[in-house]
């Protein structure tokens, strides 16, 4: 008879991995937020939208949640990563004499609390769960990248360099393809990933426009 190996060490290992994962998410989030603030107005024209892009913060929150030991920790990493980005951005601008508006704090604070856990959970689903949940997890960052690229090529076409948005669109497609090849199995799961990504990309401009209204209305 094969002896039963208790799962206590595994659970203990997961508990030990939670604090480092959250610490890394917060630390890298703070650094990314500070870098975003410093980059605004300093990047070349072709890269300027990067310092105002939701896609870059979304992708980073997704990546920060990937090493988390559990789905719950992944959701927390996605949230704390975005909170760190917002805190780093606000603190850096404040140190330079540029206080952030209440609208910006409300918009990105809501994104951290609502979208952050979903991104983190999606990262864990893509990493650990097969089928539909993996496809859903992959669709979140890919959909935001593609949706924001479409928004940039239409609404922001007159004020930003379109080459950046085309590059972001290509990046979203490549990420979707690479993520599907690496983790998804079967035509059905890949088709689901494409459909879910299209849904997120379609919804993004609507949600972003509502968020822009918040930024304008709230001083």
UniProtKB/TrEMBL annotation:
Keyword terms, alphabetized: Membrane, Transmembrane, Transmembrane helix
Protein's UniProt keywords contain Transmembrane: yes
Pfam families, A to Z: DUF6518 (PF20128)
Keyword match RNA-binding: no
InterPro entries for this protein: DUF6518
Transmembrane segments: 21-39, 72-91, 103-123, 164-181, 193-218
Name of the molecule in the record: DUF6518 family protein
Phylogenetic placement of the source organism: Bacteria, Bacillati, Actinomycetota, Actinomycetes, Pseudonocardiales
């Amino acid at each position: 008879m094969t002896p039963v190996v208790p799962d206590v060490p595994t659970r203990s290992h997961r508990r030990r991995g939670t604090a480092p994962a959250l610490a890394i998410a917060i630390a890298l989030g703070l650094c990314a937020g500070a870098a975003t603030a410093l980059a605004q107005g300093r990047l070349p024209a072709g890269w300027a939208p990067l310092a105002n892009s939701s896609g870059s913060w979304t992708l980073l929150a997704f990546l920060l949640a990937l090493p988390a030991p559990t789905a719950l920790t992944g959701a927390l990493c996605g949230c704390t990563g975005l909170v760190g980005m917002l805190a780093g951005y606000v603190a850096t601008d404040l140190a330079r004499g540029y206080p952030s508006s209440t609208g910006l704090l409300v918009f990105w604070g809501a994104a951290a609390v609502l979208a952050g856990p979903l991104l983190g959970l999606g990262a864990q689903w893509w990493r650990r769960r097969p089928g539909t949940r993996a496809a859903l997890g992959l669709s979140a960052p890919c959909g935001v990248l593609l949706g924001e690229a479409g928004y940039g090529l239409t609404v922001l076409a007159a004020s930003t360099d379109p080459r950046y948005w085309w590059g972001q669109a290509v990046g979203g497609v490549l990420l979707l393809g690479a993520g599907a090849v690496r983790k998804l199995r079967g035509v059905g799961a890949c088709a689901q990933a494409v459909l879910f990504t299209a849904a997120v990309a379609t919804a993004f401009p609507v949600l972003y426009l509502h968020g822009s209204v918040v930024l304008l209305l709230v001083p």
